[in-house]
Write a structure and sequence with these properties.
The longest helix is centred in the first third of the chain and has 22 residues. The N and C termini lie far apart (39 Å). It is elongated and about 55 Å long. Strands 1-2 form a two-stranded antiparallel ribbon. The protein has a two-stranded antiparallel sheet with strand order 3-4. With 249 residues, the protein is mainly alpha-helical. Helix 2 runs antiparallel to helix 3, helix 5 packs across helix 6 and helix 6 runs parallel beside helix 10. Helices cover 71% and strands 3% of the residues.
Length: 249
């Protein structure tokens, strides 16, 4: 079932850009797709809500272009821009953790939505792993920026238990992002490269067991994701109740 353009969260754009995006969703051959891809990436790097929505928008444009002309101009431009942002990721992280987390969220959503012959795009596998590995390093686990807004970990609660109105709470920005992305695409990533997933979880295990100075919430999130993978990318009902009652408190 095709989505109406009204279903996409593009209200944050000015009216001219909204019209451009709506046209791209329906008639991609009539617009500048490089411009469209840059608009989507630029907005994704500064807007967490949109960075989670953007994968779905990109998927629709890719499908529409393939159906219309069997082309891949939009996907090529999107991947080129993602590659450039990937090269600059450390500079982005140093400049703004918020922008860095938005980038990781965006590339993981693109990995989740865009497939080639119903398989994840091979070109994104290692970049996605590299981003998640960076989030699992000691300085990312330790040097957290706390912000007051809806939490990524509460977004995990929404995915798992369909909570609709989680209360706002302080965030552990990078740990929350890491855990949420692993909930979303961890099983897919493991299927295409189990060795790298093992390496990532060695880092997470060492962070949980050996790293001093972690907050209690960071330890809880790390323990949850360790148990989540150990359980075959799912939690028992007892474990789910324990972790998410702790997060909500």
């Amino acid at each position: 079932m095709e989505n109406s353009t009204e279903d996409y969260k593009i209200q944050s754009f000015d009216l001219e850009t909204q019209m451009l995006l709506k046209t791209a969703l329906k008639d991609p051959g009539s617009v500048n797709l490089e411009k469209v891809s840059n608009i989507i990436v630029d907005q994704s790097l500064k807007d967490q809500v949109f960075s989670k929505e953007a994968g779905r928008i990109c998927y629709t444009i890719v499908q529409a272009e393939a159906k219309q002309s069997n082309g891949n101009t939009f996907r090529r431009n999107l991947l080129n821009r993602l590659q450039q942002e990937f090269k600059d990721r450390e500079e982005t992280r140093e400049r703004s953790l918020q922008e860095w987390v938005c980038y990781v969220t965006f590339i993981c959503n693109i990995y989740d939505y865009l497939k080639v012959n119903n398989m994840p795009m091979a070109a994104l596998v290692h970049p996605v792993y590299d981003c998640l590995m960076r989030l699992a390093k000691p300085d990312a686990l330790m040097n957290e920026e706390e912000v007051r807004k809806r939490s990524f970990c509460l977004a995990v609660m929404y995915i798992c238990s369909k909570l609709t109105s989680p209360p706002p709470r302080p965030l552990l920005l990078q740990v929350d992002c890491l855990v949420l992305q692993l909930h979303r695409i961890g099983e897919q990533l493991e299927k295409v490269n189990c060795q790298r997933m093992d390496e990532l979880f060695f880092l997470l295990r060492d962070g949980f067991l050996l790293q001093e100075g972690l907050t209690s919430m960071a330890r809880l999130l790390l323990l949850e994701i360790l148990e989540f993978r150990a359980g075959g990318w799912m939690l028992s009902s007892t474990a789910h109740k324990y972790y998410y009652s702790e997060i909500a408190d």
